[in-house]
Structure formats: C-alpha cells, structure tokens
Amino acid sequence: MACMAVRLRVKELAEARGLNLATFQREAKLGMTTARRLWNNTSDGSPHGPSLRRLDYDSLEVLCHFFHCTPNDLIEITGT
Predict the structure, then answer these.
(1) CATH 1.10.260.40, applies to 5-78
(2) Rounded average pLDDT over 29-41
(3) Could you give the count of Cα atoms lying within 13 Å of 8 in the half-sphere of its Cβ?
(4) In Å, what is the CA distance from 17 to each residue of 2, 43, 56?
(5) pLDDT score at 55
(6) What is the pTM of this model?
C-alpha cells in the first residue's frame, strides 16, 4: 500500500493573494492558534511540527468561503 500524504494549500493560496499569516488570520476571522495550524499544516501550529491530522467542518467551511473555492482546491493528496 502506497503512503499517502494529505496537505492543506492554505499558505499557498493566501500568499497568492498577497497575504501573510497575520493578515490571513484577521481577514478570515480565525483564532491565531487555528490560523497557525492551517497555515503551517501542522497539528501544533509550528512550522516543522507534526503533520495536521484533522480538519473540522467549521474550519473547512470558513476556508472555502474565504478563498471562494471548494475543498478540492484546498486539499492536496499525493502518493496515491
């Protein structure tokens, strides 16, 4: 069985709009802890922390609304 990797494209999408982490957090109306976790794609919010393992529906809805996209635009799956 191949090893799959799932990654959020939040940082990439935000930077394409010229946003840094603080601006993304403020404009998306997220708590800083949540914004860091989503931005860094890590469960502890640090840049080199353990991979993000869960994404709740509320956060997914906020991200889709903020970026005007679908979950397919936010989530990248590799190694399938």
Answers:
(1) yes
(2) 96
(3) 25
(4) 34, 24, 24
(5) 93
(6) 0.89
Q: Give the gyration radius of the chain's Cα atoms.
A: 12
Cα atoms found within 13 Å of the Cα of residue 76, Cβ hemisphere only: 9
Residue with tokens 């800083």: 32
Q: Could you identify the residue written with the tokens 């991200």?
A: 63
pLDDT tens for each residue of 55-75: 999 999 999 999 999 999 999
| Residues with Cβ within 8 Å of residue 36, at least 6 apart in sequence | 21, 25, 45, 46
| Helix (H) or strand (E) run with residue 32 in it | helix 32-40
Each residue of 18-27: pLDDT tens digit? 999 999 999 9
Main-chain dihedrals φ then ψ at residue 64, nearest 5 degrees:
-60, -40
Residue type, 3: C
